[in-house]
Amino acid sequence: MIEAAIEPARFRQVLGHFATGVTVVTTMDGAEPAGFACQSFAALSLDPPLVLFCPGRASRTWPVIERSGRFAVNVLAEGQHHVSQVFGARGADKFAGVGWRTAPSGSPVLQDALTWVDCAVETVFEGGDHWVVVGRVTALGEPSGGRPLLFYRGQYTRAAPVRADVISWAGPDDWL
User: Fold this and answer.
1) Do residues 103 and 116 make contact, with C-beta atoms less than 8 angstroms apart?
2) Structure confidence at residue 167 (pLDDT)
3) What NCBIfam families is this protein classified in (predicted)?
4) Please, what are the averages of pLDDT over each run of 10 residues along the chain (176 residues)?
């Protein structure tokens, strides 16, 4: 079977229709905090508790996380798009305008994040132009009760609750 080439722009357009949460993955580089904005984050396993995130091969922060062997995933709240933008950019001190404290591992937990997940690097796999990093969860933050910051179709968006009594399920027979 011959596979057709997938154009990167088309791939991005189609996958952009899958809404993702926005996180900031952080660690310490000696006495200095380091971190980057990350949409490629997911829960992987309940037993043992594992998560994964996928930094790009060109990431400047991933080698720091790899050296430290630990990281925290900060789940951003709907009003924190500016935090995502700062941590998504190269250069400048990303922590200059952001309050933070340390998780049990010593990794930074950002002020006003919805919650956080503290981890130790468990396994790393090659994944095309990214790494797939599996982390063993070592501690969990208390959820704040707010709403998450989402990314959908190339822009930030918000989650809106849907009342269960107005949802109508169309089963597989209705899809044809």
Assistant:
1) yes
2) 62
3) monooxsub_HsaB
4) 82 83 95 94 96 95 97 96 93 89 97 97 96 98 93 86 68 53
Q: For the chain, what are the domain ranges? A: 8-155
For 9, list phi and psi in degrees, rounded to 5.
-65, -40
Give the per-residue pLDDT at 161: 80
Q: According to DSSP H, which parts of 69-130 are helical? A: 81-88
3-state class (DSSP) for residue 112: coil
CA 83 to chain centre: 13
d(CA 63, CA 9): 28
Q: Which residue has the tokens 């189609």?
A: 14
Q: What is the pTM of this model?
A: 0.88
> Which CATH number is correct for 8-155, 3.40.1350.10, 3.40.710.10, 2.40.10.240, 2.30.110.10?
2.30.110.10
3-state helix, strand, coil in the chain (%, to 5): 15, 40, 40
Q: Omega into 104 within 30° of 0, i.e. cis?
A: no
Distance CA 176, CA 171 (A): 10
Residue 176, pLDDT score: 46
Smallest CA-to-CA distance from 102 within 141, 136, 68 is with: 141
